[in-house]
Design a protein that fits this description.
mainly alpha, three-stranded parallel beta sheet
Length: about 160
């Protein structure tokens, strides 16, 4: 997917530097759930910015050299940490109405350059975070721990699992 924002030499190298939010943020218990929310808000709805691009992040990362050809087959710690630390404003919680988790989602292609979709790196293990999203009505999952789909359905969120 091409985005006009990517490869724009006018973008500051500090694009991926964190700025503390001056507003309330969502606290996540489950990283897999957070990744799904970031997919919806950053890539699908384009409400969470800046949009993260792995190649750009690696090029600008200055704490060490990240070699995607060698390291891109496993999650890269610095990239995973970026998403763990990423603050999501609480005001965006109402924007989440549906989550469609698929191995081809943009977020997974940023987290794992040469991923094959069968790892359990981003499994949703608990549904506790769902309570923070009052408009979430439907979830289609491919990375879910045991009982997650049943627990979501019990909470009134229509959930199903698809196999990758």
């Amino acid at each position: 997917m091409f985005d006009k924002e990517y490869n724009n030499p006018l973008l500051p190298k500090g694009k991926y530097s964190f700025r503390k939010l001056d507003e309330e943020q969502i606290e996540f218990d489950d990283f897999g759930f957070k990744v799904c929310v970031i997919q919806e808000l950053m890539y699908n709805k384009e409400l969470l910015k800046p949009k993260f691009y792995l190649d750009e992040f690696v090029e600008w990362y200055d704490k060490r050299r990240i070699d995607l050809k060698e390291e891109g087959y496993e999650p890269i710690a610095e990239v995973t940490q970026y998403f763990r630390d990423l603050e999501v404003p609480k005001k965006l919680a109402s924007e989440i109405t549906e989550i469609y988790q698929d191995e081809g989602n943009d977020i997974y292609l940023q987290l794992l350059k040469f991923g094959v979709g069968w790892g359990d790196y981003w499994n949703i293990e608990t549904v506790e975070d769902a309570k923070q999203f009052p408009n979430l009505k439907k979830m289609t999952l491919c990375y879910a721990g045991e009982n997650v789909v049943d627990e979501l359905n019990e909470r009134g969120i229509k959930a199903k699992e698809v196999w990758v």
